[in-house]
Amino acid sequence: MSDTLGENTLTTSPPEGRSAGGDGATKAPSPARKRGAGGADWAKRLEITLLAGPAVIMFLAFVIFPVVMAAYYGFFKWKGFGPPTDFVGLQNYITIFQDEKFQDALMHNGFILVMSLVIQGPAAVALALLLNQRMRGRSLVRVLIFVPYVISEVIVGTGWGLMLKTTGAVNHFLIRIGLPDWTVEWLSDPKIAIWTLMVIISWKYIGFAVILFLAGLQSIPEELYEAAAIDGASYWQMQRSITLPLLGPTIRIWAFLSIIGSLQLFDLVFIIWGQYVATTAGTSTMATYMVGEGRLAGNYGYGNAVAVVLFVISLTIALIYQRFVLRRDTAGALTEGKK
Amino acid sequence: MRAHKLLGATAAVAALALGLTACGGSDDPDSTGGGGSSGGDVTLTFWHNSTTGPGKEYWDRMASEFTAANPGIKVSVQAIQNEDMDGKLQTALNSGDAPDVFMARGGGKLADIVEAGQVLDITDLIDDDVKAGVGPAFDAFSVDGKVYGMPTAILPGGMYYSKDLFEQAGISSLPTNFDELGDAVSKLKGIDVAPIALGGKAAWPAAHWYYFFALRSCSKEVMENLPGTKDFSDPCWLAAANALNDFAKTEPFNEGFLTTEAQGSAGSSAGMLANHLAGMELMGAWNPGVIADLTPDKKPLADLGWFPFPAVDGGQGDPAAMMGGVDGYSCSAKAPKEACGKFLNFFMSKENQEAYAEAFVTLPANQEAQGVITDPALQDVLATYNKAPYVSVWLDTLLGQNVGNALNAGVVEMLAGSGSPEGVVKSVTDALAKE
Lengths: 339, 435
Hints:
heterodimer, A: MetI-like fold, 2 strands, flat, B: D-Maltodextrin-Binding Protein, domain 2, D-Maltodextrin-Binding Protein, domain 2, 2 domains, 46% helix, 14% strand, transmembrane helix (chain A), cell membrane (chain A), MetI-like_sf (chain A), membrane (chain A)
């Protein structure tokens, strides 16, 4: 297990590992260019085209093209039969932002985003620190924490949905142990449902954060702790001054993934609540709104407009995050590329 | 057919596999003979939604018997999971690769496809004896006086109930108005079962309650004008929402009905009826078949009975009016015309419709085949249906996908306590803005 974690480390950018790789990359091409062999250059381009070409074509066909088409369809009132003809300009976009259900969904996404960071981040760091200690059954606990992440969303949603419904196992259990007053509508009470969702999300995705952080921890050189120990630093001082700063890049990457995941959350909500109850229980997201108003209500033009809004929101947040938060982590890589 | 929602999520994997095979199989030379000359070999591609059991066998048998009777016309059958049907059909219609014959439920949804010029006008293709046998059920598939689909089943709604539980609870006569229904509800609560099962998660079972309140509250004229005008300004629509809201406040539905499925498991609303956990359920005529699948021994529920939706105080609707759906099949605009017409007429014969009724445990559209109905609950539905002064189609089907969907959502919001009776009517106007 620890071997695999060690390998992962390389991709999650430990500082010294990255600079080493960067140096190698900058050194390699320069001699080739000096030789001025046009043939070699040409061969290299052919190689790049051949190897990257299929991926680029797939990317254009299955990512860029649909985005462009969605933007196009978003300007029409279109029920999805035949080519769209009823051009309405920005009307769909105006309707979206006037629709209270969309505003609600946006709020829910924001709540999920913030709570995911607040709940999962510290908990995962703590768990990772704990599991980084030498202790009995460590591998087993690591696996157990990671298992929910591996199970498909459909199964997780169906299972939790069955357990948490009013007549489900959780309420049944509470009655059996003599706490009938504690039974609540876990899924349909608007005051509770979004917290239920947060518990399920945390349960499902915390393992992913823990594994990332464990990988990050492995890359912190042992010598730093030894030196700190010689200097007389306490355990907490070591964590604060060595672990957290050096784990920073990993945490920031995890937060980025978590933010994007929160903005695009769909499957868990849709499976557990369904389109209608998600709205009344206050767990709807932009993605469930999109599917409900587009595909299920048959307003394909409108649904495409929602997809564009969701895309733009996600892209904007991603760019801002990269610009201001990830800049420290990517700064080195970018300058090296320009050399 | 809604009955097949019972396959639900459990069959998602199977549906995926089916979807894949369906894609692979689409290279059939389906509409190559577009002109429809019956001389050469023609293959009809045919989509229905019975992925298992007697329903699937029925369609496979129809296809092979039809080819035997009409050499030169092959039928390539594809069974598609009910929940996948709409999306797949839409994609197929858009890409010009539509199946020649496909399942349809009429109403606004069909009208949208007709408007896009994707469905064949079959008015002149229907045999005279089929026309006579089916009668008014063609209305659901008619747009501007032309027929665009062949109805195979009529599925009127009403209250299904357990005779045993009613007896246990001491309910001596079937409720005919809401005072009596309220009385029955409290008596059923007395014997500790859920009075009325409701699978609200999918919204349409909850919305059916609103439709029936509207059917009783609104006059015949208002109901008849609805598909053309989509106008909810008549006060009867709000009155119906208020009546449902008041009724819901007496807590007649099973605990946690908002997160209850309608079909598919013992915990679903149909399952509650099948296992004597609930006294009654408002459903369409597919329900006896659905319930039969969910009883402990997988046999029809012996004590299942039926009564019409009760009358509403001060309502302008005829208490004998009914509401229901019609299942049927349409030909795509590019289908070989004559072959398609022949196939539709073929499975509408008396014998084939009798087999249909038995395979699907439901009411066949051809009235001559209705003699085979043996299920007592279905017999009661049929008798009431044949006497009904007028029949409305489910409002979500009638209004089309967009408005119908919004109406369903509005009803669920009201029942969940996050909306209001006014909100039900408003949801329709909001949806029209997106259409």
